[in-house]
Amino acid sequence: MRIDVRELALGPLTLTGEVPVADLRLDSSDVYVLGKIVVTLRAEKHAQKIRVRGHFAVDIELPCARCLDPVKAPILAEFDQFYQSNADHHLTGEIELQEKDTGVAFFSGEFIEVSDIVREHILLGLPMKPVCREDCKGLCPYCGKNRNVEVCNCHSLFVDPRLAPLLQVRNRMKF
């Protein structure tokens, strides 16, 4: 899905369309998009900048941070982004960013790729530590069994041998 910048000379554009998952270039093999990504947006020209506002919803699947079972997570994203053409800026060498530069994205040619906006918001919307459930016990660090499914007979307390004398002192003291 692309926005043709030349059409904005005639007036604002309202678009609704599907962004193919392959266009997102999600390099991580751990993140799977479930279903279609339907984006609704409005693009309008403001002097030298183009404002793109819109929203989309998508369900993703990624592994639980504790037990590696699949976790489904919804992402509801709204975006409001300003764009400016690279042709308006002759960038050479090192350039110091100004505060005003952080709120503007740049595009080349006559099109703005909507898949870039969607990809960015999916990655920003990923949970930091996805868990299948709040009481997930995770994997056993010794044998690797999923402790939500089966109980293992491994020792649950691992003591660093360098700290063993401190543990003995603690066990002698009764609190």
What's the overall geometry? Answer: elongated
- Describe the largest sheet: 5 strands, mixed
Helix content: 10-25%
Radius of gyration: 25 Å
Strand content: 35-45%
Strand order of the largest sheet: 2-3-4-5-6
Could you spell the SSE succession in H and E letters? EEEEEEEHH
| Classification by helices and strands | mainly beta
Distance between the termini: 66 Å
- β-strand number: 7
Number of helices: 2
Indicate how many domains the architecture comprises. 2
Low-confidence stretches: none
Mean pLDDT: 86
Could you explain the architecture of this structure?
By secondary structure, the protein is mostly beta strands. The chain folds into two domains: 124 residues, no CATH class; 39 residues, no CATH class. Helix content is 12%, strand content 35%. The protein contains two helices and seven strands; from the N terminus they run βββββββαα. The chain has a five-stranded mixed β-sheet with strand order 2-3-4-5-6. It has a two-stranded antiparallel sheet with strand order 1-7. The longest helix is centred in the last third of the chain and has 12 residues. It is elongated, with a radius of gyration of 25 Å. The N and C termini lie far apart (66 Å).
Structure at a glance:
The chain has 175 residues and is mainly β.
Write the layout of secondary structure elements.
Blueprint: E1 2-4, E2 13-18, E3 32-46, E4 49-63, E5 70-85, E6 104-107, E7 111-113, H1 114-125, H2 164-172
Parallel strand pairs: 5-6
Antiparallel strand pairs: 1-7, 2-3, 3-4, 4-5
Q: Which features would summarize this protein structure in a list?
A:
mainly beta; 175 residues; two-stranded antiparallel ribbon; single chain; 2 domains; elongated; 12% helix; five-stranded mixed β-sheet
